[in-house]
Amino acid sequence: MKKRNCKRFNVTGTTLFYRKKPLLWGKGEFSQDYYPVLNMSRGGLKFLSNHKISVGSSLTLKINIPGLDQPKKIKAVLRWISRNREQSYRYQNGVSFNAYGTGRKENPVEILDFLKTLESDLDLDKPAHAL
After folding, report:
1. Which residues form the PilZ domain (predicted)?
2. Stretch 107-127: mean pLDDT, rounded?
């Protein structure tokens, strides 16, 4: 069984909007609804949604974290999707963040630094939200 490289943590009240990369050109539009983030790490996150997203889709996430003035934009790829057993949202989605660096498809290193700070500020002994 594959072990995770990064510890998951919760930031209560965190939500996101997502935008799928169009097939041909352009940027696409962010989802009209925001969705709850269940847990996150330096390498990815799990969120709920009502729309089925294709595994392998390139996404741009606009993550709203309570207490921050501006949302953080992070490039990611959808790795898995499953039905949500709860009634609130239809799907659980797992994404992995793109690599950190200066390339066009990479996330800025400042995002990694931010996630490291966020992780260290939280009590990682508390279990991540699980359904």
Report:
1. 3-98
2. 82
